[in-house]
Amino acid sequence: MCLAVPGRVLDIEERDGTRMATVDFGGVVKEVCLEYLPDLQVGEYAIVHVGFALQRLDEESAKQTLELFAELGLLQEEFGDPWETAAAEAAGSEPVEEVHNQ
Amino acid sequence: MKYIDEFQDPELARRLLDDIHATVTRPWALMEVCGGQTHSIIRHGIDQLLPDKVELIHGPGCPVCVTPLEVIDKALEIASRPEVIFCSFGDMLRVPGTGRDLFQVRGEGGDVRVVYSPLDALRIAQQNPDREVVFFGIGFETTAPPNAMTVHQARKLGIPNFSMLVSHVRVPPAIEAIMSSPSCRVQGFLAAGHVCSVMGMGEYPELAERFRVPIVVTGFEPLDILEGVRRTVQHLERGEHTVDNAYARAVRAEGNPAARAMLEDVFEVTDRAWRGIGVIPQSGWRLAPKYRGYDAEHRFSVEGIRTQEPAECRSGEVLQGLLKPHECEAFGTLCTPRTPLGATMVSSEGACAAYYLYRRLDTPAAKAQEATPVV
Ligand code: SF4
User: Fold this and answer.
1) Residues of B in contact with A72 (CB under 8 A)
2) Does B268 reach chain A within 8 Å, measured CB to CB?
3) What is the torsion angle, in degrees rounded to the nearest 10, for the CA atoms of residue B30, residue B33, residue B36 and residue B41?
4) Cα of B341 to ligand 1 centre, how many Å?
5) What is the pairing mode between strands A52-57 and A5-15?
6) Interface test with A, best of B100, B168, B194 (most A CBs within 10 A)
7) CA B114 – CA A95 distance, rounded (Å)
8) Contacts of residue A33 in chain B, CB cutoff 8 Å?
9) Predicted structure pTM score
């Protein structure tokens, strides 16, 4: 939950008086609130946490971070199905992650 | 070798490590505050790549872990009511309350839903005007602004059937509590990068000065952590207790002013209990008086619920850096992610879970194997 993921703004619109954007996180697309970064523009990158853009990021660092997160399976952790994970844990299989340092 | 090849930029990692090795002359104990950093460190074996003289102590920065049992029990009570749709981030589902967790409440017929953003919960409230929608608002300074905005929106849009169970915590008072403990060994801090993206660095100079510790704002990717360690060690070796920013691409000195203004409007600072640690003065937020109507504790009269944490679990010591997870007797035997005794084992950012997942062979035999140099 604490993970903040960089994403790229695809488009922006007002909704209920609130600035909202569609944001692409390396293939996963989510709705994001721009109220805390009101001057963010289409094409720009930002760090997004639980559906809110919190700080601007340059393209290069954003891309690097996304690549790394994808590699480490962190995007799956952030956007995957938590019910499945909880059910797997409750049923007794271990959490799905790989032991990384072999 | 085996670890460093997995770094995103192994060459840069090696240079940072060489620099750290060349700088260190005395033993230093550094605390990384954020649970995301702990996971990165254990997953990449960063602690094992560092010189023996540099010890990383894991801090309390996992919101799921520090949410008190009492609050979990309040959540379970509210989530069990037939009129309620209870919305939460996914990682709270398996955090044990007294006797059960949210996952089980759902199995028993409770309407528990997982949301990605607190605004999703608000939308569910709009779509279900005949139900009460409650959002479980936990987290540090990174999560608090989104939750604050959601309560603000609920009021602005006049959504009467939405409320929030609020248990937000703040990092600087936790640093203060850790440093004030007589058994504290921490000499430098890697501050949590994303908390600072919101709050900026203004709260740190006073702490750095008072406790004479360097505080280096650090991201949580492996290279960011190495850079944070490198700078902290440099400051320590030079006898400086400065505040430094090793995560400039995401942290500005003033943080995010709009988010901070919203925090001030919606919340007020309050004493908060941390799971396993106890009450830390001024370490949390609750809804400000003008938003009290959105306080789920009040709306569902669960303010009186009081519960005791299980005595076997030593997560309080783990969270304060006084004990490493595998030094807990229950680690890996009585306590596993499948049968967690404490939240530090169940949370994906918890220190016990990190050790269990990535350092599960932490037995005498594995230690002998680890003794082989890895760089
Ligand atoms: S291993 Fe389990 S029982 Fe021991 S401190 Fe960690 S969570 Fe608590």
Assistant:
1) 43
2) no
3) 10
4) 6
5) unpaired
6) B194
7) 18
8) 117, 119, 146, 149
9) 0.87
What is the distance in A from the centroid of ligand 1 to the CA of B321? 13
List chain A residues with CB under 8 Å of B353: 95
Element (H, E) at B137: strand B132-139
B197 Cβ under 8 Å from any chain A Cβ = yes
Which amino acid appears at position B154 of this protein? Answer: A
CB crowding A71-84: b at 16 or more within 10 Å, else e? ebebbebbbeebee
Cα separation of B285 and B78, whole Å? 20
Could you tell me if B308 lies within 8 Å of chain A, comparing CB atoms?
A: no
By C-alpha distance, the chain B residue nearest A51 is: B117
Along the 375 residues of chain B, how does pLDDT read in single tens digits? 456 777 778 888 899 999 999 999 999 999 998 888 998 899 889 999 999 999 999 988 888 888 988 999 999 999 999 999 999 998 898 888 888 899 999 999 999 999 999 999 999 999 999 999 999 999 999 999 999 999 999 999 999 999 999 999 999 999 999 999 888 999 999 999 999 999 999 999 999 999 999 999 999 889 999 999 999 999 999 999 999 999 998 999 999 999 999 999 999 999 998 887 889 999 999 999 999 999 999 999 998 888 877 778 898 888 888 899 999 999 998 888 888 888 888 877 789 988 998 875 554 434 444 444 443
Select from B58, B198, B369, B375 the residue whose CB has the most chain A CBs within 10 Å, as the one to mutate to test that interface: B198
ipTM above 0.90, yes or no: no
CA distance A29 to chain B (A): 12
Cβ count near B338 (within 10 Å): 17
The two structure tokens encoding residue A11: 């488009």
Exposed / middle / buried, residue A101 (Cβ in 10 Å: 0-12, 13-18, 19+): middle
For residue B91, which residues of chain A lie inside 8 Å, CB to CB?
1, 82
Q: What is the rounded CA–CA span in Å between residue A96 and residue A89? A: 9
Q: Using the beta-carbon criterion (under 8 Å), do B8 and A18 form an inter-chain contact? A: no
Q: How far apart are CA B308 and CA B310, in angstroms?
A: 7
Rounded Cα gap, residues B331 and B313, in angstroms = 9
Give Cα B22 distance to the centre of its chain: 32
